[in-house]
Each structure stands twice: as C-alpha cells, then as structure tokens.
Amino acid sequence: xxxxxxxxxxxxxxxxxxxxxxxxxxxxxxxxxxxxxxxxxxxxxxxxxxxxxxxxxxxxxxxxxxxxxxxxxxxxxxxxxxxxxxxxxxxxxxxxxxxxxxxxxxxxxxxxxxxxxxxxxxxxxxxxxxxxxxxxxx
Amino acid sequence: xxxxxxxxxxxxxxxxxxxxxxxxxxxxxxxxxxxxxxxxxxxxxxxxxxxxxxxxxxxxxxxxxxxxxxxxxxxxxxxxxxxxxxxxxxxxxxxxxxxxxxxxxxxxxxxxxxxxxxxxxxxxxxxxxxxx
Amino acid sequence: xxxxxxxxxxxxxxxxxxxxxxxxxxxxxxxxxxxxxxxxxxxxxxxxxxxxxxxxxxxxxxxxxxxxxxxxxxxxxxxxxxxxxxxxxxxxxx
Amino acid sequence: xxxxxxxxxxxxxxxxxxxxxxxxxxxxxxxxxxxxxxxxxxxxxxxxxxxxxxxxxxxxxxxxxxxxxxxxxxxxxxxxx
Lengths: 138, 132, 94, 81
Fold this sequence. Notes:
The complex is a heterotetramer. Chain B is mainly alpha-helical. Chain B has a single domain, classed as Helix Hairpins, CATH 1.10.287. Chain B contains 5 helices and no strands. In chain B, α2 runs antiparallel to α3 and α3 (33-55) packs antiparallel against α4 (85-116). The relative contact order of chain B is 0.11. By secondary structure, chain C is an all-alpha fold. Chain C is flat and about 60 Å long. The mean pLDDT of chain C is 86. Chain D has one domain (3-74). Chain D has helices at 3-22, 26-47, 50-74. At the B-C interface, α1, α2, α3 and α4 of B face α1, α3, α4 and α5 of C.
C-alpha cells in the first residue's frame, strides 16, 4: 500500500455513506419548519459529507467533482438568492424581505423555505471552500 | 427551600464565568498559537452558554408547537409553556459565524508557520526581530 | 510580571462572578429576557406564519435582516480564507 | 430543566476545558475541545434549545475539529506549554 492510499474497507464504507449523509442534510434543510433543523445545520451536514469523502478517498477524489470557480460562485449565489428574494418582495410593493407579499398560498412559509435553501447553499459552499483552502495550502 | 432554588439557579452563571476564565487564561498565558485559538473557542462557547441559559424556563418544553391534540382549531399558546426562542436564534447564528472566524484564524496560522517556521510566541517574536 | 496574566484572569473572573450574582436565576419564567418580546413571538407566531418551529420562524421571518447579516459574515469569512491562502500561492509563483 | 443533570454536565464541560488548555499534545487538546463541544451540546438539549444543540453537534464538534486537525497535522504537534 502506497503512503497516500487508504485501506479498501475505509474507502468503500466512506463512499457508501456519503449519499445517505447528503440525503439527511437535504432532509434537515427541507424539514426545518416542523422539526429541529434548518439551513445552517443542513449546510454543515452536506459539507461534512464532502469532508468524509476526502478522508475516505484522498483529496484528489473530491477535487475531481467540482471546480474551484464553481465553488466560489456557489458561495456568492446563496447570498445573492437571499438578498434577491428581498428585492423581489420590494418589487411586489412590500417592505424588504416581507414574504407575505409573495403571490402563493402560505406565502410566509414558502419564503422561509427559500431563505433556508439560500442559507444552506452558502454554508455548504463556504465550509467546503475553507476546508479546501486549508488542505491544499503548501 | 428558597435558598436551594436560588443556589441552583446560579449554577450556569458561575460556570460561564469559570469557563471564560479558562479561555482567557489560555489566550493570555499560553505561548502556543493553537492553544490560544483553543482558548478563544472556549471563551466563545462560554458566552453562548450564558445567553442560552437566559432562554431556559422551568417546566417548559422545546420551542416547537405541539400539533394534533385538537384537529382543526389552532392550539392556544401560552408563553410559559415554551422556552424563550429569541436567545436561541441569536446563538444559532453565532455558532456558525464562529466556524468562519476559526477558519480565518487557522488560515493566518498556516501563513505564519510557512513564513517563520514556528508557532511558539517567544520564538516567533525573536525571528521577527532577526529578519526585520 | 510572570504571573500577571493569572492575576488579571482571577480579578476579571471575581468581578464577573460578583456581577452575575444579580442575574435572574436560570429557569425563572418571569426573567426580563423572557417577558419583553418573546411572549409575542410564542403566542402569535404560529398563527401568523403557519410554521410550528419557533426558532425557524424567528430566524427566517421576524429577524430576517439579522440572518442576512450572518450569511454575509460567513461569505466574508470564506473569501478571507481564500485571499489569505490562495493569494499566497500566486505571490510565490511570480 | 433537570438540575442534577445540569450540574453533572457543567462539571464535565469544565473538566474538558481544563484538559484542553493544559495538555501538551496539541492533537489531544483538539480532541478534548471536541468533547467539550459535545458536552455543551448535551447541556443545550437539557435546557430545551434543540436547534442550537443540533448546530453545535454538526458544526462545533464536527467541522471545527476537522479544521483544527488539518492545521495541527500541517504544523507542529508538540506545544511548549
């Protein structure tokens, strides 16, 4: 076994666990309305699934799956989605971030779900980005 | 029994001060920069402990509305039944911001180690003086 | 001077303990933080927003500005790490 | 709130914090910090702050520890004090 290589059991178990961890993270984001959870927690769980992949398969495995530019763009996309929802409310004639103006039923609940998704995207991308920068620094 | 209840009520307040003293001691007294960062994290969590302690209430349940006991009608909610959600919200965001702060501090540590080759404060000061 | 930090730590701790003895006891339902604005959130929030989790609706609805600020702070943290570490690499390559 | 449980958990957090500050091996220090964070998480469940406890378990005990371990392994493991 070469120095940078992991045992096949660790590698396989980590790779098998990753989709379940990611699914649980999505569940936590989506179900934050009626149980403990939300964007911050779900984002951290999805980010830690990538960290698990890095621990199991070596960091090159993870780097093949996303580009750095896309990671930075995703970090900004979450903040822009959040601020953009506020601007949408402004255009519909209400105050900034006043979701009651959205033209759907249960508007405030739907607005909160969008906010949680935006927060989740930002937290996921930010934690992966920090982890990537710390690991690849020579 | 009033004396005992008062004493129990002050546990959290005293413990947050003790944890804060430990963190403050690590930040001022230890010379290793990673130790200082560990102290900073303990300090931060002691403040979070203090604020979350303000939200606790005796004989109250978690801040999620109990549904389904009478279908259709909205349950009448009493403030004394649920713990205070406001300090929890503020501290929820503070924890996640703490990770971002720790990340920036660790990045600075890596840069310092690359440039000076040490993380001990006294050796670091000496090398800074030597190289100018 | 060697034990100055211990003295400072002990003094700060004693002052804080003295100050915190006047705090409301933990678990007091009528303490000032629990009697000002949070009863309004607990009693009216579910009717107004149809979301059962109180932490979620205070976080994402009533205090949405606050959360926007926090998300911006996390974004800024990620960008700061990027500039500190990846900026160093391009500096070394030049 | 159960005050007996509260007292035990507060004692454990203080012990973990003292250990994390005093031990010389930095990797042990980081792992003790993670344990400290996990006891804090239990303390918050006991106080009824489930969302904060969830965040703490995911972020404080998970991600922070990984970041610290990465830095300790990339620099020195021994500390002078």
